[in-house]
Amino acid sequence: MNRRQHRVFKLLIWILGLFLVAYIAGRPLHWHLNETLNSTSQPCPPCHCDCSLQPLLSLPEGLTNNSIIDCMRQDPEVSEEVGKSFTDLLAEEVKQKEAEAEEKQRIADTKLLEAKKIASQYQKEADKCNSGMETCEKARERAEAALENQMKETALWELRARQRGWNKDASKKARAHF
Q1: What's the first-to-final CA gap in the chain, in angstroms?
Q2: Helix, coil or strand: residue 80
Q3: pLDDT of residue 47
Q4: How many CA atoms lie within 13 A of 62 on its CB side?
Q5: Is 52 helix (H, G, I), strand (E, B) or coil?
Q6: Distance CA 128, CA 120 (A)
Q7: What is the pLDDT of residues 16-63, one digit of tens each?
Q8: Do 116 and 108 meet the contact criterion of CB atoms below 8 Å apart?
Q9: Which among 43, 81, 47, 85 has a CA at the least distance from the CA of 66?
Q10: CA 10 to CA 1: how far, in whole Å?
Q11: Which helix (H) or strand (E) covers residue 99, if one does?
């Protein structure tokens, strides 16, 4: 890129940045200025009407007249009552959330207790298994020792018998004749 193209590119980036800033900050400034100009002009007089809450005709949702609602917004008694009910609704919602949280905590505590009981059962079973394994291991060791003693004793008796003339092959032939 040569120097002239570099300058044109920088200029385009600056212009794009200015348009972006104007777009982002311009809209709120426009509405703020609009509200400021409208507030300095003649304000709307308060609505002094005796509006009944029951409409004379029931119109479809899109065609309803919101002048009754506008009238109630400007009435301090109505707005105070709405504020109180809003506070009551918030308090009720907080109580409901607390009740839900307590219920969830109770369920979690119950599940934790069940998990502890199951873990305890598994631990008892594991202890029984370990105890059984130890008993089996001791019995195996005793059996091995007894077998070893028996093998030694058998070898001793066989040795004595051979010393006295016993022959293993001759005894097999003798058994075959019976």
Answers
A1: 117
A2: helix
A3: 63
A4: 0
A5: coil
A6: 12
A7: 999 998 888 888 888 877 877 776 555 555 666 655 555 555 555 555
A8: no
A9: 47
A10: 12
A11: helix 76-163
* Side chain identity, residue 55: P
At residue 13, what is the residue type?
Answer: I
Q: What is the dihedral of CA 102, 103, 104, 110, to 10 degrees?
A: 110
> Is residue 35 classed exposed, middle or buried when 0-12, 13-18 and 19+ CB atoms within 10 A define those classes?
exposed
Residues ≥6 apart with Cβ < 8 Å to 147:
none
Can you read off the two tokens belonging to residue 101?
A: 């949280």
User: What letter represents residue 102's amino acid?
Assistant: E
pTM above 0.90, yes or no: no
Tokens of 89: 């609704």
